[in-house]
Amino acid sequence: MNSQNVFDTAGPDGDRLATLAWLLFGGGLILFVAVLGFLLVALYGAARVRRTLGNPRFIVAGGIVMPVVVLTALLLHTLGLARALGLPMPGGEPPLRIEVIGHQFWWEVRYPGTLPGGGIVTANEIRIPTGRDVVLEVTASDVIHSLWIPALHGKIDMIPGLVNRRTIRADRPGAMRGQCTEFCGTQHALMAFMVVAETPPAYEAWLDRQRLPAATPPQHEMGRAVFAAAGCGGCHAVRGTEWDARIGPDLTALGGRLTIGAGTLPMNEGTIAGWIAGAQDLKPGNRMPSFANALDGPELRAVSAWLESLK
Prior knowledge:
alpha+beta, Immunoglobulin-like
């Protein structure tokens, strides 16, 4: 399910939207075939049939009455569907609240109340439990963005200074791709993210891991030192260390995420090194500079190995 597919749905809103899409596609196909059929009859049909098609009553019925009936029925169905979107599950647990902030060109994800005095902060990945309502509270820090998880819901505008809310629910585990769908600058196309739906026990275990401060085993001390010397802490936070900047993504559990660079590359030690060395080559215009000329090979490998170990 690691794809962006409006027909590979995982929740009630996704199912409703997919049903509407099939209805529109199917209805459009029926009308297209009907129009072609009438055209062929008009060109090659018997004279008696052509006279019937030219009857004013037939023209009024097919050209006015039928479109009014069909479009009215479709409008009523769509309005009913719009009212149903985002409705909470009756009698379920209180909804989980997650804050998502759009940046050029990445996603900040916050879980309020999951830590004393604050919450867990991640980036470019939203983890949710299955079978439970989740209220996404979305906004933007710079320009207008739009959050879309095709398998779960329709598009949600992210506007600076305004918080929009949408209730979503995943009914089965899986990884789903999401995307920014409002042009937000040069790297709009590379502003993706992953949603990982897990069973409630797996989700709670993930939260427990996220609550832990970052650890540095002895074999990664060099990487931590390179991170400090290169000034990475001026933009990034790593919980449990002296670095708490919020200009760029929080890196506390970077190695446990599925992608790097907001969906640009899969997560592994090699792609982390490639991103650090050539962020501007891989994603020109993003706010992270390339460090190819600032770090030598051993330094680059050391800091990448340390960051990948943060899970």
